[in-house]
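Consider the following input, taken from an annotated entry for Eae-like domain protein (Escherichia coli).
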Amino acid sequence: MESNIKGLVAAGHEMASELKAECGAVDMRSVAKLISDLATQLEVQLVRANALAAENAGLKHAMAVTLEHVSVTDAGQAGVAAMIINDALHHSETPATDAFLAEVRAQVVEMFAECAYTLEHHDHAVAFAAELRTGNKQ
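Applying the prediction step yields:
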């Protein structure tokens, strides 16, 4: 998805430059398609951001509810609260967050692939990035 967004950004900047330079020499169908693609990607990103925000709100609420029921005034109870919160966080389903983090990890591996000294390292890194995106590697 990231490469698609980067491509749309590059195309948008290029098209804007052409419009400025040639003032009307750009095919309006390609402008309309670019605008449509940009709108679609923005919509996808909005859905993604909303899903992340909802998961974050749920995790914060769970932590707040836990802290309401556990007194943290003495050191022993603070440890109990931390264990309860840790267990709750590790047993929470967060598919949007998991997908986002998988994408970030894959992008880092792809950045490494661009710097790889050998084709073998590059190919291995690209394959590993694809596995990260599908969730097969963590």
